[in-house]
Structure formats: structure tokens, C-alpha cells
Specification:
Layout: H1 12-18, H2 22-29, H3 33-52, H4 64-86, H5 89-112, E1 114-116, E2 128-133, E3 139-149, E4 161-165, E5 168-173, E6 181-189, E7 196-197, E8 209-210, E9 230-232
Antiparallel strand pairs: 1-9, 2-5, 3-4, 3-6, 5-8, 6-7
């Protein structure tokens, strides 16, 4: 699972899964859904910091209730904006529906607990990928990486980087490592959706990965991120104004 601080908690595609008319409404009313999602995540961040009563936001894992809370809150904000533009009862009904669902998801999160990880390992930034003389078959490859902590937990992979070889192979270097990192993994493939881990053991911090002649085509694929190590139950609930 991703960390709350890794990026967007939900995607537009997930929001469309909850409301198939979302994009039509957003286009008709000139609403930027991405901005609403960012605003919703900012609100959730403030509420989570208040609920946890400690600065633990970087340890929060995106569990299913948290993802739903964000999705429903984003949709509520979209329809609130649409209603403000048109004063259309249909928009008001959708706003109220998603407001209720948002509160339901928040309540489930508080009852089940906020997922936390003791050693958060954030999503990696795009690696530095260059070429050097080598026997790898000519072609275009897609490369990504992930950080691994001392407990063997792996963070989310970076967005894949493309590289083209001609009488060469590729070399991968990680950018600045987070404090929790003890090593890193390299994933590569001939298509962005078919990446496989190339190293058998975590690569030491500060070392480079030089791709050998054979590109592993089967094996471990990029994972979903860290699982929570604890579920922090919150005794009280913060209500929005």
C-alpha cells in the first residue's frame, strides 16, 4: 500500500468508478477534478494530523477506508462546486450523497484504525538511467526502482523511465535515499506495464546497477508498497464545520 505522503490517494479513474457522470459534469461546469482531489487530500491531511495528535502523517498507510474517504470527499467537493454554479437540485442531491458516504468512510477508518508503518519508506523518485558499452540487445527499455528498508519492506516504485540502447546497456542510479532506506531494487522491461525485478538482492546505497546481457522477463513485479504494521484507533472524531 502507498504512504499517504507518496502522492494522490485516489485517481480520477477511481472517482469515475464511483460516479460515471463525473467527467461530463466537470466538463459542463468547468470544474478541475484534479484540483478538487488535491484540496480534498489537504483537508484529510489536516484532519489526520489532528486525529493522531502527533506528527505521524509520514507514517500513514493508505488503507481501503482512507482511499474511500478521499474519493468520496473529492466527489462531494466537485458537486458542491457544480451546485454553486447552477443551483441545480440534482447536483445538490449528489453532493449530499457523497457527503454522507465521506462521513461513513471516515467513521469506518476511525473504527478500524489508521494504518501506520514504523519505518516508512517513501515512493522513489525517477532514477537516473544512462547507457554504457555492453551486450544488451538493442531496443527501448523501461526502468524503475524502489527503496527497501532494513526490515525488507519495499516502498512504491518510481515512475518508469525509458532508455534506448544501441551496442550498449543501461546503467541505473538512485537519487537521494530516504533515511529509512537500506538498499534498492531495479525493475525493467520492454513495456511500461511489464516490468520485472532484475537484481536478486537489494543493491547497496550509493552503488549503480549495470544491466547484464540478459533481461529478466519473469519474476517479481513492482509491488503495492508497505503494509501497515499497526492500526492506530482514534477515540474521538473531528467534525468539519
Amino acid at each position: 500500500m502507498a504512504l499517504f505522503t507518496d502522492g494522490g490517494v485516489s485517481t480520477i479513474e477511481e472517482l469515475v468508478g464511483h460516479d460515471s457522470q463525473l467527467l461530463n459534469v466537470a466538463t459542463a461546469e468547468g470544474i478541475d477534478v484534479t484540483k478538487k482531489m488535491a484540496l480534498a487530500q489537504t483537508e484529510l491531511a489536516i484532519e489526520l494530523e489532528t486525529l493522531l495528535e502527533r506528527r505521524l502523517l509520514d507514517k500513514v498507510v493508505v488503507t481501503a477506508p482512507l482511499r474511500l474517504w478521499h474519493a468520496y470527499r473529492s466527489l462531494e467537493m466537485v458537486y458542491q462546486d457544480a451546485y454553486n454554479c447552477q443551483l441545480n437540485d440534482r447536483y445538490a442531491n449528489k453532493r449530499d450523497e457523497f457527503r454522507d458516504l465521506s462521513r461513513w468512510a471516515q467513521d469506518r477508518l476511525l473504527r478500524l484504525g489508521v494504518g501506520l508503518t514504523e519505518h516508512p519508506t517513501p515512493k522513489a523518485a525517477e532514477p537516473v538511467v544512462t547507457t554504457t558499452a555492453g551486450p544488451l540487445a538493442d531496443g527501448t527499455y523501461y526502468v524503475t526502482m524502489s527503496w527497501v528498508n532494513a526490515g525488507g519492506e519495499e516502498g512504491l516504485c518510481a515512475d518508469a523511465v525509458g532508455v534506448t540502447t544501441a551496442g550498449s546497456t543501461f546503467v541505473v542510479s538512485g537519487r537521494r535515499a530516504p533515511e529509512s532506506a537500506a538498499g534498492w531494487n531495479v525493475y525493467a522491461g520492454v513495456r511500461p506495464g511489464c516490468l520485472v525485478r532484475q537484481n536478486t538482492m537489494p543493491i547497496p546505497l550509493g552503488a549503480q546497477w549495470v544491466q547484464p546481457a540478459i533481461l529478466a522477463a519473469e519474476g517479481k513485479r513492482p509491488g503495492p508498497g508497505q503494509e501497515p504494521s499497526t492500526m492506530h484507533r482514534v477515540a474521538r472524531r473531528i467534525s468539519r464545520g
